[in-house]
Automatic annotation (TrEMBL):
Recorded family membership: Belongs to the PC-esterase family. TBL subfamily.
Highest taxon above the source species: Eukaryota
Keyword Cell inner membrane: no
Residue span, Trichome birefringence-like C-terminal domain: 207-492
Residue spans crossing the bilayer: 20-37
Domain Trichome birefringence-like N-terminal per the UniProt entry, residue ranges: 152-206
Compositional bias of kind Polar residues: 107-123
Membrane protein topology class: Single-pass membrane protein
Molecular-function GO terms, alphabetical: O-acetyltransferase activity
UniProt source species: Vicia faba (Broad bean)
Annotated protein name in UniProt: Trichome birefringence-like N-terminal domain-containing protein
Biased amino acid composition, Low complexity: 89-101
GO cellular component terms, A-Z: Golgi apparatus; membrane
Location within or outside the cell: Membrane
Length: 505
């Protein structure tokens, strides 16, 4: 790859975006109403379909607010829904003599509240006082500017977990029939609940609470694909539950092939029919291909092709949003020992250091992305290493975490950032495609309390009952739980992307 075709490192890209954003901010008030023109700029494929939908609530503003029951008398205004009195949202409800609008993204903390006229007079006063409406609109625009600016500048992954039992969990445990038993901890008898009520609070901003309906509207007509290992399956299931919870007719959310268990196949796809949207999973734990090498005497030997990207890649390269991951499988015996396992072309390495093998594999992946993914059509994300918390052993040797019910508080107990993730960061920086890196390692490292542990199964077998400690899962996450937060960050990324496209017109 020639130097000149290389992109700036991710951090520079972020800076550039911020400057560009500040510039665009100046023109925001001019361009704002262009957003509602019937012919959006066709050169911006992202979310244009969303702006061409007919309902007034498809305005940019409605995406930042709860879709509350409308009492407003201004149906022609694209802002009408946002001024409505809230009767059914997830925050404290306003009282009957006060209308409030709720700035969802800030959640509870910095919630903006504009008291207006009381309920009985709202009809008259809203129409009689256009001046007031203008002020409210201006206020909201201002709030959105402030929010988007704070998100743009924010490192989402530097922060802490704070208790928030008003807004979390995003869905009730047991309410999502689609969750694999493996993640369905409360149903499996987990007695403590606090692990579901933590919000991730970045230092520099507050993450918008994920509003499923808003997110569905952002994703209308799109394909969102997860590619990776079972931790990405964990995140995939979380997103399905969050979004399904926001769909009125749940019968119109289904797996394309009617599957109800999510292990053993190479891919799965959940269709959200009313939104013409699918959220898919492609199993590819290494992102490169598992292979069989024919030994001279006729037997076969398992190898890993560091030079070939995963098999299904052709099936998802056109997706609108692709979230990759790999990590845990590089800690298993075969990979970490690396003896007669790694293969390039017809060459099988007698021995290869796992970090070097990882670098080769990720480089193969990155070249494939640069060559096959159209970055102006598809948004590419990579989720980093999710921490596990086995103590007293490993995943296959009696490691446990079942007594953990609170997160790590003291940072000195956090582990070192994995060298593999440093390798990954370096590869990402050299890519032509701008890949959004979800740097979840540290945020998950705090959460020793979030794993299924022994609550990974409803009924332990008699073997498992004899030594439950042999069967703990301290790698994956209970749902509701930590992966919901990753999806909340994905939501924030989508909002930013939409806002950015909006302001490029
Ligand atoms: C907003 O909520 C109302 C009432 O629930 C519903 O009729 C309308 O379709 C919703 N709008 C959107 C965009 O979801
Ligand atoms: C509701 O309105 C009453 C009277 O205006 C006021 O005293 C009270 O504090 C309000 N309650 C809330 C929760 O805003
Ligand atoms: C509510 O509006 C009615 C009618 O305009 C008015 O008589 C009443 O005083 C108002 N109440 C409050 C609390 O503002
Ligand atoms: C509305 O805006 C105008 C002009 O900026 C200002 O003079 C007026 O005081 C505002 N009214 C309210 C209620 O904020
Ligand atoms: C949300 O607001 C309520 C009432 O203002 C407050 O009691 C509660 O502590 C707030 N929660 C958070 C997480 O800020
Ligand atoms: C569904 O979305 C696809 C793009 O992903 C589009 O080609 C197709 O026309 C849409 N179908 C409907 C019924 O909107
Ligand atoms: C074939 O060779 C492999 C290693 O080269 C060895 O492990 C295996 O036992 C051999 N099988 C037979 C049937 O000789
Ligand atoms: C990439 O996608 C954009 C937007 O969909 C499209 O206009 C462009 O032609 C595509 N480029 C290639 C090389 O396919
Ligand atoms: C990711 O987070 C780690 C801390 O866990 C930090 O050391 C590293 O620099 C971060 N990477 C990026 C690209 O921000
Ligand atoms: C667990 O065992 C009970 C009693 O044996 C049985 O009724 C239940 O269906 C089992 N649950 C699962 C998920 O296997």
């Amino acid at each position: 790859m020639a130097e000149s075709t290389k992109h700036a490192p991710n951090s520079d890209i972020k800076t550039t975006k911020t400057i560009a954003y500040a510039f665009m901010l100046v023109f925001f008030s001019i361009t704002l109403f262009l957003a509602f023109s019937p012919s959006p700029n066709p050169s911006s494929p992202w979310f244009t379909n969303f702006f061409t939908t007919k309902t007034s609530s498809s305005s940019i503003f409605s995406f930042f607010f709860h879709n509350t029951t409308t009492t407003s008398s201004l149906p022609s205004s694209p802002f009408s829904n946002t001024f409505s009195r809230s009767t059914n949202n997830n925050f404290h409800s306003s009282n009957s003599s006060t209308k409030t609008f709720k700035l969802t993204p800030y959640g509870n903390k910095t919630q903006a509240s504009v008291p207006t006229t009381n309920k009985t007079s709202s009809h008259v006063s809203d129409e009689a006082k256009p001046q007031k409406k203008t002020n409210q609109t201006a206020n909201m625009k201002q709030e959105i500017h402030i929010m988007m600016e704070s998100l743009k500048k924010c490192d989402f992954f530097d922060g802490k977990w704070v208790k928030d039992d008003q807004s979390y969990p995003l869905y009730q445990p047991g309410s999502c029939s689609l969750i694999d038993e493996q993640f369905n901890c409360i149903n499996n008898g987990r007695p403590d609940h606090d692990f579901q009520k933590l919000k991730w609070k970045p230092k520099g901003c507050s993450l918008p609470r994920l509003d499923g309906q808003r997110m569905l509207n952002l994703l209308r007509g799109k394909r969102l694909v997860f590619v990776g290992d079972s931790i990405n399956r964990n995140m995939w299931e979380s997103l399905i539950c969050i979004l399904r919870n926001s769909v009125k007719d749940k019968g119109k959310v289904f797996e394309a092939n009617g599957r109800v268990h999510f292990k053993g196949e190479t891919s799965y796809s959940f269709i959200f029919k009313d939104y013409n949207f699918s959220v898919e999973l492609f199993v590819s734990p290494f992102l490169v291909q598992e292979w069989e090498f024919l030994v001279k005497n006729g037997t076969k030997k398992e190898t890993l092709r560091l030079d070939l990207v995963g098999k299904s890649s052709d099936q998802y390269k056109d997706a609108d949003i692709i979230i990759f991951n790999t990590g845990h499988w590089w800690t298993h015996d075969k990979t970490s020992k690396g003896k007669d396992y790694y293969q390039e072309g017809s060459h099988v390495y007698n021995e290869l250091n796992v970090l070097e093998a990882f670098r080769k594999a990720i480089t193969t992946w990155s070249r494939w992305v640069d060559a096959n993914i159209n970055a102006s059509k598809s948004m590419v994300l990579f989720r980093g290493y999710s921490s596990s918390h086995f103590s007293g052993g490993q995943w296959n040797s009696g490691g446990q975490c079942d007594s953990e019910i609170v997160p790590i508080k003291n940072k000195k107990y956090l582990r070192q950032y994995p060298p593999k993730m440093r390798v990954l960061e370096k590869v990402l920086k050299n890519m032509k495609t701008c890949v959004t890196y979800l740097n979840v390692t540290k945020m998950t490292d705090f959460r020793k309390d979030g794993h299924p542990s022994i609550y990974r199964k409803h009924n332990l077998s008699s073997d498992e009952r004899k030594s439950p400690l042999m069967y703990q899962d301290c790698s994956h996450w209970c749902l509701p739980g930590v992966p919901d937060t990753w999806n909340e960050i994905l939501y924030a990324e989508l909002l930013m992307k939409q806002y950015q496209n909006q302001n490029q017109h």
